[in-house]
Amino acid sequence: MPDGKFLSAVPFVQQLNWAKSIDAQGRPVLTGIKPTAGGTLINPGFSGATNWYTPAYNPDTHLFYFLALEDCGTSFLKPESFAEGRPYYATGVRRSRGTKREKSLVAYNFDTGAFEWRYPQAAKASLPAA
Description:
mainly beta; 3-stranded antiparallel beta sheet; 130 residues; 4-stranded antiparallel beta sheet
């Protein structure tokens, strides 16, 4: 019977700099990267690497399918001020231009503990004007 205890975790994005591993309780071990007044590049960005996408599991293939987002954000020590006509996240975070941004459909095999395949989206994501 499931008891809600942490089982395992594996990194699934290449751009990851705020955590270096996962501890025995399933919590991230932080690297110490923090927002600064001038801005700090944090990967993945404020949207997370898979927070909003619904995963699926196929018991016939034993594969777990999910969307992974490679994205970076620049985090600032203080929230930004609102300016009409400009993107506003209210958190002191902005999308970072010039960094790799890509969604991929990923298949993970629980039996082998390995990724079976990764299928990048064909379309490029657009970023709002800075």
